[in-house]
Structure formats: C-alpha cells, structure tokens
Amino acid sequence: MKKRINKILLLTFLFLVSVFAFRVNAVTITVNSSIKGTVDTSSSYVTNQAPLTVTGVKMGDQFKTYKLLDTFYNQASNEVIYEFTSNFKSYLAGSSYSSYTVDDYFKLTSGSLTSGSTMTTSTLDKLVSGYVSYIKNNSVAGVDMAMNGTVATATLDAGAYLVLPTNTSRVYATMVGNIDFEANDSEWTLNGETIVAKVSDAGVTKNVSGLANKNLLESAFTYTVVGTVPQYPTNATNKTYKIVDTLSSGIDFDDISNVEISDGTTKLSAAGNGNYTDAANNIVATVSISGQVMTIEFNLSHVTSTSVTVTYQAKFNDDVVLGERGNDNNAVLTYSNDPYGTGTATTDSVKVTTKAYGIEVIKFDNSDRSKTLSGAVFEVYSDRDLTNKIGTITTGSDGIGRLKGLSEGTYYLKETKSPSGYRISNQVVEVKVKIDGALESDTTGYYKAEISNVKNGILPFTGGRGLLLYSLAGILIIMIGTVIAIKNQKKNIING
Predict the structure, then answer these.
(1) Residue 216: Cβ-neighbour burial (10 angstroms; 0-12, 13-18, 19+)
(2) pLDDT, average across residues 127-131
(3) Global pTM?
(4) How many independent structural domains does the chain possess?
(5) Residue 488 has what pLDDT?
(6) What residues make up the domain containing 181?
(7) Together in a domain, 218 and 302
(8) Which DSSP symbol is given to 174?
(9) Are residues 347 and 403 in the same domain?
(10) Which of 97, 229, 367, 401 is within CB 3.0–4.6 Å of 393 for a Cys-Cys bond?
(11) How far, in Å, CA of 397 to CA of 135, rounded?
(12) pLDDT of 109 above 70
C-alpha cells in the first residue's frame, strides 16, 4: 500500500512538473483600463513588459527605442489587438504608406537588414526609415536603452519598436523588433526580442609606393588611398562620403589627370572637370585640388562595392624636408553616421611619412685636403653601368655640391668636369644613401662622398696607379739599357 501511495505521489509530482514546465512562460495580461483601444473600444492598453535587446553593438554607442505599435487586450474575448501608435499613424497618413494596416506591417520584411519581420518581399526599412525623419522633425520622444558592453537593452511595454542609434561612429542598418504575445490554448506568453545588429564601419587606409632609388624631385611616386564604404539602409537620405588628402609643403600633386579611382575592382572613367563616371555615365566621384589639398567626394547612390580606391602621383619640391623627420601626408574620411539626418563623423587622420635624402660631394686638392675645389661637375646615376642619370652635382666656392630629394639606395658619381687647373678623375664613386655602409654628412639628411683631384702636370697617384707602373717600368728599362751600353763600351775599349 505504501509503495502504491509513493508511486501515486511520484506521478502527481511529475505531472505538476510537466504542467509547470509547459506553462512557465504563461502570463496574466495586465492592463491600464483608463486607456482604451480605438479598433476595439472594449479593449484596454496592455502594461506587461519584456526586454528588447540589441547585441553586437560598439561599446560607448547609445540607442533609443521608438514605439510603432501599441498592444490592447479584450478580457471578455481573450483577444490581443495591435494598433499603430498615434505618432506612427500620423506619419503613415502623410506618406505613401497611408493605406497600410497592422496586418500589412506584420507581413513586411527586409531580409538581413531588419529583425523582427516575416513573410513577403516588401522592405520594412523603407517604411520605418521614413518614420525616422518624422521623429526628428516632430521631436518624438524615445526611450533610452541601457548599455552593458556590446549589448543594449530596454524593458518595454508589449508592442513593436524601432531602434535608433543616437551617438555612434558606426552605420547601423534599420532595426525593428516586436515584443508580442503568443497564444497557447487559452494561455498567453509574452516574447521579448533580441536583434543582432547589422553594423558596418567606415574607414580609410593609405600607402606610398614607387620610391626605390630615384630622384623624387624629378620622378613621381604613387599614393594609394582605400576607403571602406559602410552599408546604409535602403531609404537613407544622408550618405555623405568624402576623402580629404593633405600633402605637406614639400610635396606637390603631379597632375589631376593622373588621379585614378576604382569602385571595388572596377576602374571609373575620367569624364573631365574632376568627374569620374561608371559604365552608365553616372557621376560616382568628383575630385578637386586646391594647393596641397585634394578632396574626393563620392555619390554612394552609384557606388556598388564596399570599398573605393584612389591612386595619384606626387613629387617632392624644393621645400622637401630631408632626413628621418620626413614629409607627412594625411588622409581623413568624413561620412554620414546619421543616415536619416545631417550628422557626420570624421575618422582619425591616417598619416604616411615619405622620406627623402641627399648626396653631398666634398671636393679637395689631392695633396692638401684643406684646399677645397669649386667647379667640379658630377653626373649622378642610379646604376653601376651609368645608364640611368638622375641628376647633376656642381661644387661651389666651398668645394661642396649637393643633390637633394633622393630615396634610399646606392648611387654612382662620374666626374664630367674637373676644377680649373686639375685633372679630371676617371674614377666612378659609389655613394650609399640610408643603407649599410652609408657615410652621413654633418648636414641633415645628406650622405657624403669625399673626392680629390690632382693638379695638371703632376703624376696622379690616386686613381692613376696603372700609369705610374708603366712610367717606372720605362725608367727601369732605360736604366738597364744604359748600364748594358756602358759595359759594352768598356769591353770594346779593352778588346781594342
């Protein structure tokens, strides 16, 4: 008997557990009876609450929720009714969606852009993005969401909500979520909503190429700027996207005709007046240059990829800064972080430092180093075979000559004119610039070559060792011949 009672108690416990598990989410609908529905005047405003959560947001961003649908309950018929809020209803009345019903709203979808909608292929983001402008123009109040790291949460009355960022540097897709009731037989459960934010960031990167072993005052080098394009909601009205590139005073833009722009991997066509067009002749970008500043404005309505690339040529000028300090180049991106308003954000400056150096020749008398020589002329080459001339150096009254604006590498100097009264040197002098074995000058950014000259009429010992050997050999032969001649002469006298 005891075993039977225990078995009954166990079955009863299991039944209660199963009932509790099945009904754990069941809620008693609570209402504010002073607020009546307009569709069903016997219904009252529902006050039950549940959390609306957005995950995957950036720490520090802030959000507000704006209600789209109110929830009402008719206790007699046990029926839940949804109605547009008064603000959302006013917006719809003045829009192309004036005929929309609550059923129409629940059928909308926008694919991956928006959470909390189902069924057809209409776009919910188009509908609610229009409401964003209404919110801003009519100062509609929203509810702040609490931030906890990368999660935003608000506990809200049952209904449908639009979530908008109020302080962010990122671009968020349209976010809507429903806190709605689900019927289970005669019971109701209230479901919260979790939205996984679809976010895209704007950014800009920059690099320089084409610097190897050349005179950068005469030869152009290439800057490449790549901008990351955020994905704006379908109906966004503010898609500002502008890159501003500023050169230091020592660098000049080569020519606007050398600017190339690509939308993804597709190169745009230069259409004149700084405009760049796609295959359909839509103006995708416009370039303007003023002094050291180049501005590239994009029309994102015609940008089809998630990145844009700008390449252009530049050269150093006489104001180039030599040495490790270098010549800075800064690029910033200004973009809309408020797709439905006028707000913009600007990225941190991306800096590229392009360095230049120089060669300093010190010319002096071979026998007296303190005596410097003017008027020596050297051609400077970037190759040992002396085929690629990049500049000329002439020594001044102090015996010093310089060539600036060079990139790091090895250069070769050939004397083409000697100082007055001195022999020209046939020696090719190697000068290393900013690489192992380079000899730095006392002058910032220069690498030096010390080269001597021999006066006319003096046998050159430096750089003329071969001629000296031939001369000594000749003298020795004459001496030997003289000795032999004398001996032969003495021998003839004795024999005679």
Answers:
(1) buried
(2) 84
(3) 0.76
(4) 4
(5) 62
(6) 28-200
(7) yes
(8) P
(9) no
(10) 401
(11) 77
(12) no
